[in-house]
Amino acid sequence: MSFDNAYEAITEENDSRWAFGTGFDDPLSGVDTVLPPDVDGADLAQYCLMLGDDALVMSHRLQEWCTRAPELEDEVAIANIALDLLGQARFLLARASAAEGPAGSAADGSADSAAAGAAGGAGRGEDELAFLREESQFRNVRLVELVNGDFAHTMARLLIFSTWRLALLARLVALQDPVIAAIAAKGVKEVTYHRDWAARWVVRLGDGTELSRSRMAEGLAAVWPLVDELFRPHELELRLAAVRVGVDPSVLRPEFDAVLAEVLRAATLAWPQTPALAGVAGLFGRHGVHTEAMGYLLAELQSVRRGHHEGASW
Amino acid sequence: MVTPVSGDWCQDTIYHSQLVHRARAAAEAVVDPELPMLTLADLGVLREVRVGADGGVTVSITPTYTGCPAMDAMRKDLRAALRGAGFEEVRIDVALHPAWTTDWISDGGRRKLAEAGIAPPGPASARARGRQAGWPVPLTLTPPRRRVPCPRCGSEDTELTSEFGATACKALRRCTACREPFEHVKEI
Predict the structure, then answer these.
(1) Dist CA A242 CA A233 (whole Å)
(2) Most A CBs within 10 Å, among B137, B170, B184, B185, to test the A interface
(3) Least CB-CB distance to B139: which of A183, A186, A262?
(4) Residue A229 DSSP one-character state
(5) What is the CATH number of the domain that holds A179?
(6) Across chain B, what does the average pLDDT equal?
(7) Do both B37 and B64 map to the same domain?
(8) Which positions in chain A touch B97 (Cβ < 8 Å)?
(9) Residue in chain A nearest B166 by alpha carbon
(10) Domain for residue A34, yes or no?
(11) Which residue range(s) make up the domain with B161?
């Protein structure tokens, strides 16, 4: 059904929906979500949060470009990319919810565990995972949370993010968790388009005018400090890589470097030299340790859900 | 209303195949919420329709794009269509694997797209090469030159405006002969 008429949406019977045109239910509804036999459910749930939070937070930053992009076509492109990533995030958070099981909230020490009991009858449900976790419970890499900066900053980050994620998804396709593998197989097709689009913009701006070139170089330099973290394995990633459910991200570096070198060469830009941003006492985004930008981002992302505790659903 | 099986083997088999036929016809007639000129069968989203011994129907569908907001509407429309055909017990399974590809759009679907002014996709397999699990996906810094004839005037002089359009599955193009913009279902 369509929602050309807003009243149609709010008058629909038996529906707790309160926002127009957001007829979402569990994205994994009807998908066989049985866990692979030799995998710890809590580990798999955490891993899905890592992969899902990367997509969710990157999608949120891209959504901030709505009504702000330089041209209509680019606006539409950014919105499409954000939608693809949001779709990946929904499937992955739903998978995390199914894998964590009813004990999920308690195991996580979440203050919101009393409010648990959402979709799927298993874990907390995708909405609660997205809208009610605290900053320290988000497992995304810090690259995706940085404020957008200008269009060149955003293209630099999108190129880096999608190059890394494409290499990661392409490997997950062959691994043991059937749901992650299937999500990855679809994601590969989508992120291929994202990477190509961002790469073409980096080339166009880098090999453009003096001004566009300097802005593109500045954009790359600004996001480069968060690149090393993408390839730094968390112990959970190593544990799951050993049982062929996850990927050790350090193996992705050669492919990433080769793609970046090809783009930078075409863009006539130099390899960025800005030093890596250190973690906090050796802890990074995957541990739940984030930059200052993350708290502000979550405040906006979660404000509506947190403001309607009486059971509003997105 | 679906009546349960009677116990007569021959009668039951005929009856069951009639039920399957009826369920399939109802499911196949459901149209895509975003491309209403296509049925879910034309689009290749409808993977399977089964009728159990108890008369319950199980329909298997696959999402086009991961973020496709139409999935929920598809589920509801399928359920409504099957209820309309007399099936009370309807189960909608989502098959994530194998991932949907535009190669699954039927010939009839391609014709209907073109008639609606939307250029149908070319073969996706060329782009899918190198997509075997674990293989690096090649970077394409220049958009591939595709033969996408204008759905209005038929000219082959068309250019890509953007690989992203009003829905996740479409790219924007422009015909340099008749100068009309048009949409193209992009190959995935």
Answers:
(1) 12
(2) B137
(3) A262
(4) G
(5) 1.20.1260.10
(6) 87
(7) yes
(8) 178, 181-182, 185
(9) A76
(10) no
(11) 106-133+144-185
pLDDT above 90: residue B123: no
Sorted by sequence, the CB contacts under 8 Å of residue B84 that are 6+ apart come out as B26
- What is the rounded distance in angstroms from the CA atom of residue A163 to the CA atom of residue A254? 11
Residues B65 and B23 in one domain: yes
Residue A221 has what pLDDT?
98
Comparing A28-37, A78-87, A163-172, B79-88, which segment has the lowest mean pLDDT? A28-37
pLDDT at A77 exceeding the cut of 90: yes
Q: Is residue A232 part of a domain?
A: yes
Residue A1 lies in a domain: no
* Contact state of B141 with A88 under an 8 Å Cβ cutoff: no
Two tokens, residue A268: 């006539």
Is the CB of residue A93 less than 8 Å from the CB of residue A49? Answer: yes
Cβ contacts from A onto B, under 8 A: 139
User: pLDDT tens, A108-136?
Assistant: 444 333 333 333 446 788 888 999 999 99
Neighbours of B36 (CB within 10 A): 10
Tens-place pLDDT, residues A21-30:
344 456 666 6
pLDDT at A26: 64
Does B144 lie at the interface with A, CB-CB under 8 angstroms?
A: no
Number of domains in chain A: 1
Nearest to B162 among A77, A182, A263 (CB): A77
Q: Is the pLDDT of residue B14 over 80?
A: yes
CA distance B27 to A49: 35
Q: How many helices (H) and strands (E) does chain B have?
A: 5, 7
